[in-house]
Structures are given as C-alpha cells and as structure tokens.
Amino acid sequence: MANIQYVTKEGLEKLREDLHQLESLERPKISQQIADARDKGDLSENAEYDAAKEAQGMLEMQIAKLKEVVAYARVIDESKLDSSRVSILSRVKIKNTANGQELVYTLVPESEADLAKMRISVNTPIAKGLLGKSVNEIAEITLPNGMTLNFEILEISLD
C-alpha cells in the first residue's frame, strides 16, 4: 500500500494544479522538443534528441509520483482538531526559555512546509517536540546535533 499523506484542502488543490500543469503544458512541450530533434536527422548522434527523451522520462516519473500523492492524499478535517493542544495545523507561539526569544510557527503537513512563512513540517524535531503539549507547558526538544532546547508554549490557535 502506498503512503497516505495528510494535506489541507489548499494543499490538495495545489497538488492538483501542479499535476494539471505538468500534464497539459509540460508534456506537450517535451513532445514537441522530441519531434523537433527527430526532424534533425540521425538519432544515434543527436544530443538534443537524447536530452529531450531524458527530460520526458523525468517528467513522466514526476507525473506518476504526483498522481500517487493525489490518489492517496487525505484532507485533514479541521473541525475535529483540538485547539487546546498542539496538533497539525496549530499556530503555536513559543518562547525559548534560555534566551527569551519568541517565535510563532504553524505546524503543517510536510508537503506544505515553508520556513519563510513560518510553516514547519510536523516531521521536524521542533514540531515533534511540541505536538500534544498545551499552553504553559515546557517542550524539551533534542535537535539532531544533540543540543537540547526548551520552549514554553504561550499560545495555541487554529488558523
């Protein structure tokens, strides 16, 4: 069985848009490149043809993978999430107990992580350490380098 991947409604729509883009725009473009390269003559010494065929193989692999992700995607039912504890889709305000620095993260499925927007994957060490905690609890998080950080949970909300 393939891996079930949990996504938001917006995340699933983005996956479907990406798949549509690859199938309806990129696939015909590569087919045209192959046809153009084929028209140039001897295929055994045609680098353009080889490159286009390789690009086609990579694209088809990408399309197949995306189709599988979409097929096994499960949309998270936000109405069943508990806002009193940190869970997926929680927006969490935390304070580093060592230096007092405050951060706000939203915990999202891995496919929707974007550090620039402070959206971290639930699979990261920080998110794993925060999951299940409630306001005023201290999350002790051990990073891959062995360093341990303590974060106090200040606020939890669902976006």
UniProtKB/TrEMBL annotation:
This is Transcription elongation factor GreA. Necessary for efficient RNA polymerase transcription elongation past template-encoded arresting sites. The arresting sites in DNA have the property of trapping a certain fraction of elongating RNA polymerases that pass through, resulting in locked ternary complexes. Cleavage of the nascent transcript by cleavage factors such as GreA or GreB allows the resumption of elongation from the new 3'terminus. GreA releases sequences of 2 to 3 nucleotides. InterPro entries: GreA/GreB_C_sf, Tscrpt_elong_fac_GreA, Tscrpt_elong_fac_GreA/B, Tscrpt_elong_fac_GreA/B_C, Tscrpt_elong_fac_GreA/B_fam, Tscrpt_elong_fac_GreA/B_N, Tscrpt_elong_fac_GreA/B_N_sf. GO terms for molecular function: DNA binding; RNA polymerase binding; translation elongation factor activity. Pfam families: GreA_GreB (PF01272), GreA_GreB_N (PF03449). The keyword S-adenosyl-L-methionine does not apply. It comes from the Bacteria. The gene is greA. Keywords: DNA-binding, Elongation factor, Protein biosynthesis, Transcription, Transcription regulation.
